[in-house]
Amino acid sequence: MVKKRAVLSVLLLLIVAVVAVLASPWPSVFVIRAIFDHGAAQASKALEPLVPTDIAVQTGLVYDPSDADGRLDIYRGNAASPDGPVIVWFHGGGFVSGRRADLANYLKILAGKGFTVVNVDYTIAPEATYPTPIRQANKALAFLSAQASQLRINANKMVLAGDSAGAQIAAQTAAMVTTERYAQALGISPAPLAKQIAGVLLYCGVYDITQMGQSGGLGAWFVKTTTWAYSGKRDWRTVPGFDSMSVTPYIARTFPRAFVSAGNADPLGPQSVALAGALQEQGVNVTTLFYPKEYQPPLGHEYQFRLDTEAGKSALAQSVAWLKSF
C-alpha cells in the first residue's frame, strides 16, 4: 500500500508538472534563467583579472523614474575622448534572463580601450512582453540625449550595441530611429534623431523570428519558451504585431553603419549572416566578422566574451578598431 501511494504521488507530481509546463512558460523560463545565470556568472568571473583599475563608474542612473528597471550604468575609460562615440550596450539572455551587472566586467574592459560605455537594463519576459524593451531603449536614449552635457557624453555619436537578445534590441531600436515606416509599424515615436545614431555593434543576435525553432529538440523548446514569454501567448504567430521584432525584413538604406559578428558554431550564426547580407543589399556600410566552418576550436554563442581565446581577443580588437573609426 505504501509503495502504491508513493507511485501515485510521483504520478501526480508528474501530471502537475506537465500541466504547469503546458499552461505557462514560467517553469521552462526558470530552467533557462538558471542555466544562463550560471553561465553569465562564470563568464564575468573569468574577466575580472582583465578589468582596468582606472575606469570611472557611475551606477544606477535612472533613465525612467516610473520604471523599476529603468536604470543604467556609465563606464568611462581614462583615455575616452568627450568627442568620441558613446557605446550604448543592451545585455543578452534570450529575452527571459540577464541583467546589466552580467556585462559590467566586459564593458569596463571595452571602456578601457578609450571609450565611454553605457550599460542599459530593461525588463525581461514574462515580467514584461514585447515591445517593452524597445520602449525602454527609446527612453534610455532620450535620457542620454537630454542629459548629455551633465553626463559628459557625445549624444550625437551614439553606437547601439548588444549581444544575443541585446543585439536584437539594439538593431531594432536603430531601425526604428532611422526608418520612419518601421517606427510607424511599431507605434513608437523615436526619441533621438536619426543622425544621433552613428552605428550598431552586433554580436550573435536573432534578427528574423520567422526563421527560428525549425530544428526541433532543445532548440525548438528554447524558442517556444522564449517566444511564448516575450509575446505573451503560446503561439507568437497569433499575437498581432509580434512579427515586427524581425529586423531583417525592415532593413533600409537609412540603417546606420554596422559591425556584425557570430561564431561558426553558433545556432544563431545564420541570422547574423542574413542580416549582414540584407544590409549590404541596401548599400549600408557593414563590417563583418565571421569564421569558416572548419575554424577550430568551434565558436559557439557569445564567443566574443571569451577573452582567453584568440577569437575572443580578435573580436574585441576588431570592434575597438571599428569604433575608433567614428
From TrEMBL:
Residues 87-294 form the Alpha/beta hydrolase fold-3 domain. It comes from the Bacteria. Gene3D superfamilies: alpha/beta hydrolase (3.40.50.1820). Pfam families: Abhydrolase_3. Belongs to the 'GDXG' lipolytic enzyme family. The active site is at S164. It comes from Ralstonia mojiangensis. Keywords: Hydrolase. This is Alpha/beta hydrolase. Signal peptide: none annotated. One of its GO terms (molecular function) is hydrolase activity. InterPro entries: AB_hydrolase_3, AB_hydrolase_fold, GDXG_lipolytic_enzyme, Lipase_GDXG_put_SER_AS. The keyword Transferase does not apply.
